[in-house]
Structures are given as structure tokens and as C-alpha cells.
């Protein structure tokens, strides 16, 4: 009886993982490419994290609204998603395939509420408030982030995701407290860099469709703001790059590849005016992405064979 149960559970879990893989394939060629560079013991776990984060992000970024849900129904949908995630991490099972896959990863790597709760707090922030109580057609009040609000949002939406991945990478490693602190700092800085670059490249959609300005309290970003944010991102990427040699060998090429992509995006944004950012999203061509990934693999190989 126990053998049949184990086989059923394993089959269900593998199905959940395939569902998670479909999410990353549908939503991000960049992270999909980076994940393929991870060692087999990390690859599926990172995909499981990405899938949960992406589904939650889509929930608050318009999918539920476009499905016709009222504001309260959107809040209820997010609350249900959060509750089910916590329940699945505790029990090791969910009928929701994406949550089930994430729960297996969380239980394997020790991803707990200290990382999960801040993420969902940022998702709640994205739903925001509505301008007229009691209306099923309420419009979101514009979100404007000062420095403290920005930092808190970025910690929950991005830094903790980097820390989740770090727990995957380091789960079988023995390191001292100093190295652990350095790695945690680097992972947080990399997550923050990714998020800040996405804020810059998504200015058009965030402001026109979602009514959000993550980079300041004014209605319109100025040129000097763009310059300062580029400097901030470059510093964050440099801090993250410094700790890559401390990662396990089978994680370095993937992290280098993702970092190189965002360096390339930063370079492009550095050459793009604010007005252009408000008109279109900055992208890196697929051929360039492939070249960056190849160089990351080569750089890691040379590092390991010195």
C-alpha cells in the first residue's frame, strides 16, 4: 500500500513540476535560459520558485481584473493563494499544481515564512486601494513610492526571491557565518538590481496601465532620476558579482548569465531617454542573450580550471 501511495505522490509531484516548467517557458525566455545552465540538483527547484512568484505577480498585475473580478474578489483570490501556499508548505501537498511544486522546494531548502510573507506583502501592495468604496468597477488609486516604501517593496518582491534561490544553492554546503552573510547580501543586491531594472524598462506599462510609479513620488520620472537609478543598479550588480565565486560550482554559470543579461539591459537603458522609456520596453535580442550565456559558461569553466 505504501509503495502505491509513494508512486502516486511522486507522479503528482512530477506533474506539478512540469506545470511549473510551462510557466517559466511561457513568461521568461531569459530566466528559462539561465535555469538551463543550473546543475540538475538546482534547476527544478528554481523553476518551482519562479512559477509561484509569476502566478502571484500575474494575479495582482491585471489577470484577475481582466477576468472580470471585482476589487474585493481580487483581494480574496490573493488571500486564498497565500493561505494555500502556507498550508502546502506545512503539509507538503496542494491540489494547486504550482503551489504544490513550490511547497516541495520550500520544504527541501528550508524556505519559510521569513521569506514567503514579505513576498506576499509586496503582492498585497500591488493590489493597492480603490478610489470609491462599494463599487465593483473601482479604479486603483495611483501608487507612488518614496524611498522607504520602495525599499520595502523591493525587499519583498525581489530580494527575498534571491534569498530563496540562495537557500536552494547552499542547502548541501557547509559555510561559516561570514560567508553566509556575504552570500545573503549578494543575493539580496542581485534581486534588487533585477527589480529596479524592470521598473525602468516597464515604465510605460506600469504608469499607463497599472497606475504605479515604483521609482519616486512624482508623476513623471526625470532624466536625472534615470541616471541615478542606473548608477544604483550598477552598484547592486557589482556587489552581486563579487560573491559569485562563493556559490557552488553548478550554480555559478547560471547566475553569471542572468547578471550579464541585466548588465546588458542596464547599458541599453543608460543610452535611452526617459521619454523613450515611457514609450516602449527595452529588450535584449535573443541572439545577444545566447552570446551572454555562452560567455558566462566559458568564464565559469575558466574559473574552475585555473
Automatic annotation (TrEMBL):
<dbReference type="Pfam" id="PF00494">
    <property type="entry name" value="SQS_PSY"/>
</dbReference>
<dbReference type="GO" id="GO:0016740">
    <property type="term" value="F:transferase activity"/>
</dbReference>
<dbReference type="InterPro" id="IPR008949">
    <property type="entry name" value="Isoprenoid_synthase_dom_sf"/>
</dbReference>
<dbReference type="InterPro" id="IPR002060">
    <property type="entry name" value="Squ/phyt_synthse"/>
</dbReference>
<protein>
    <submittedName>
        <fullName>Phytoene synthase</fullName>
        <ecNumber>2.5.1.32</ecNumber>
    </submittedName>
</protein>
<keyword id="KW-0808">Transferase</keyword>
Amino acid at each position: 500500500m505504501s509503495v502505491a501511495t509513494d508512486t502516486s505522490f511522486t507522479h503528482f509531484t512530477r506533474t506539478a513540476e512540469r506545470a511549473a516548467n510551462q510557466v517559466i517557458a511561457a513568461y521568461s525566455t531569459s530566466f528559462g535560459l539561465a535555469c538551463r545552465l543550473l546543475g540538475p540538483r538546482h534547476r527544478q527547484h528554481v523553476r518551482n520558485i519562479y512559477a509561484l512568484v509569476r502566478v502571484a505577480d500575474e494575479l495582482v498585475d491585471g489577470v484577475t481584473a481582466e477576468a472580470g473580478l471585482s476589487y474585493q474578489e481580487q483581494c480574496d483570490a490573493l488571500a486564498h493563494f497565500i493561505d494555500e501556499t502556507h498550508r502546502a508548505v506545512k503539509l507538503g501537498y496542494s491540489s494547486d499544481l504550482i503551489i504544490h511544486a513550490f511547497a516541495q522546494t520550500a520544504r527541501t531548502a528550508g524556505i519559510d515564512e521569513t521569506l514567503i510573507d514579505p513576498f506576499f506583502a509586496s503582492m498585497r501592495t500591488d493590489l493597492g486601494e480603490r478610489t470609491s468604496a462599494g463599487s465593483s468597477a473601482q479604479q486603483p488609486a495611483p501608487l507612488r513610492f518614496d524611498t522607504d516604501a520602495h525599499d520595502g517593496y523591493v525587499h519583498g518582491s525581489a530580494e527575498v526571491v534571491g534569498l530563496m534561490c540562495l537557500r536552494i544553492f547552499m542547502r548541501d554546503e557547509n559555510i561559516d557565518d561570514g560567508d553566509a552573510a556575504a552570500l545573503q547580501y549578494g543575493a539580496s543586491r542581485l534581486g534588487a538590481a533585477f527589480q529596479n531594472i524592470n521598473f525602468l524598462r516597464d515604465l510605460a506599462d506600469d504608469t499607463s496601465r497599472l497606475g504605479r510609479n515604483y521609482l519616486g513620488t512624482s508623476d513623471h520620472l526625470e532624466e536625472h532620476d534615470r541616471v541615478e537609478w542606473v548608477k544604483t543598479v550598477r552598484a547592486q550588480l557589482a556587489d552581486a558579482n563579487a560573491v559569485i565565486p562563493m556559490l557552488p560550482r553548478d550554480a555559478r554559470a547560471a547566475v553569471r548569465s542572468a547578471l550579464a543579461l541585466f548588465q546588458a539591459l542596464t547599458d541599453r537603458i543608460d543610452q535611452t531617454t526617459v521619454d523613450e522609456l515611457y514609450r516602449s520596453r527595452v529588450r535584449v535580442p535573443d541572439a545577444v542573450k545566447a552570446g551572454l550565456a555562452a560567455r558566462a559558461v566559458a568564464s565559469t569553466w575558466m574559473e574552475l580550471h585555473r
